[in-house]
Amino acid sequence: MASSAVTPTTSFLVDKKDVGFSALCTQHSFPCSAQVSKKMVSKKIVSVMAPQQSERKPSMTGAVKTGMTMTEKILARASERAQLIPGDNVWVNVDILMTHDVCGPGSIGIFKKEFGKNAKVWDREKIVIIPDHYIFTTDERANRNVDILRDFCTEQNIKYFYDIKDLGNFKIFESDKLTLQANPDYKGVCHVALAQEGHCRPGEVLLGTDSHTCTAGAFGQFATGIGNTDAGFVLGTGKLLLKVPPTLRFVMDGEMPDYLLAKDLILQIIGEISVAGATYKAMEFVGSTVESLTDKTYVPYEPVYSDGQARYLSEYRFDISKLEPLVAKPHSPDNRALARECKDVKIDRVYIGSCTGGKTEDFMAAAKVFLASGKKVKVPTFLVPATQKVWMDIYSLPVPGSGGKTCSQIFEEAGCDTPASPSCGACLGGPRDTYARMNEPQASCAVSNVCVSTTNRNFPGRMGHKEGQIYLASPYTAAASALTGFVTDPREFLHCDATIMDVCLCYENDERREGKKVAIKMGRQTWVEKNDEKLK
Fold this sequence. Notes:
The chain has about 525 residues and is of the alpha/beta class. The protein is built from twelve helices and 23 strands. It has helices at about 70-80, 105-115, 140-155, 190-195, 230-235, 260-275, 290, 360-375, 390-395, 405-415, 475-485, 490-495, and strands spanning about 15-20, 90-95, 95-100, 125-130, 160, 170-175, 175-180, 205-210, 220-225, 240-245, 245-255, 280-285, 315-320, 325-330, 335-340, 350-355, 380-385, 450-455, 470-475, 505, 520, 525-530, 535. The strands form six sheets. A six-stranded mixed sheet has the order 15-14-19-18-16-17, sandwiched between helices. Helix 8 (about 360-375) packs across helix 10 (about 405-415) and helix 8 (about 360-375) runs parallel beside helix 11 (about 475-485).
């Protein structure tokens, strides 16, 4: 992990930034402006001696404490320290260690090498091992990795090993009743399964051998990815030496428009700070928008909050009510653009799944778009639930406003592929026989392998083919794009009320035909777009 560039002995300069709708300004939109006030400093020497100071008396009240962020509080508890500041190096007691089939074998190998072949793990109930990445494949090395996990968990009597034994047909039906008898212990994508199985708890420290482990921070805990060497050490000791990171604070206020999802919010943030903007930094999310997002737990917990006097490295403010649906263009998650700005990008597939876009809420959102349109998809649309529970929800929960239809029924009517077995799937490519992997260019598209995906990264080769073009988007945008065969703003199908929107797109006859007039309502002004020219 990279070290912090902040000097721990100096106070932090709070850099407050208002990055709402204006952050998306382009050459075709309203102008952006920034004002910076600088105080003139005289270079004239006024003294060559330190001024005489009175003798400082010792404090009578003990150590002076400063406010801490929630990250600093959690790490202070885990390191049994009363006070921490960014830059401190501390030994942290780990509450949960997670590993999977990609990094687990390497971590196990290091553990055995350093602690001995017959060594026992520090706590068999605090280790969670989840096969999820390369599962439904005939690749021998991928299958061997799962075997290594199984042997280790049997040897160590690991309590939370979510094994998969039958790699055949995952979906089993008996007398019209849906059952999952083949793999009762298998869960699916680790980041979603960790939460669903109760391993994410506020105030705790969760480490995992996966860079997306930080998503568990949504549950008010400190969560981060670590390497195999660190994981091998934690397996044997339950501790890890960590440097306390500085914190970035993101204040998101305003009513969440019904055409946006959490994916749009994080794409806005990544586009603002870049993919490297939070390297070895904690990210704290607050504001009325965040408070309105849903959460649930059945385990009693004590939440951790930042002190009012806590110091932050930077603060970013967003008015969410003014945001529009976003995408991240190839080949980086910070290559942010408005979905409507990419309306001429032809695609050849849509992928809805992964830890970031394969939850029950994500499939409900996609079904909502398909239901509203009443049309069939124009490109192959792949659906990969994150976990068994999500897969069950797709087949059992009715979609609001559908008259009792489930997601699976709506997907079938729309012409989507049958929901696949839960796993990471094609999110990170994997073996060639991985479901929905981008292997060859599609004949239907002039540019090879153009995909709108709800996954988390779009680097070259990420989903398979090195020439693949991946546009990251919300389930709303992904579903809308599947219906048109182009990158599409979901408001075209969600029938949003123009009076409560800053921008409402109304496509003539709901068809994308070049040369047709498109009315765009912006507040009280109406603009007409024809052949990509705006006329007032």
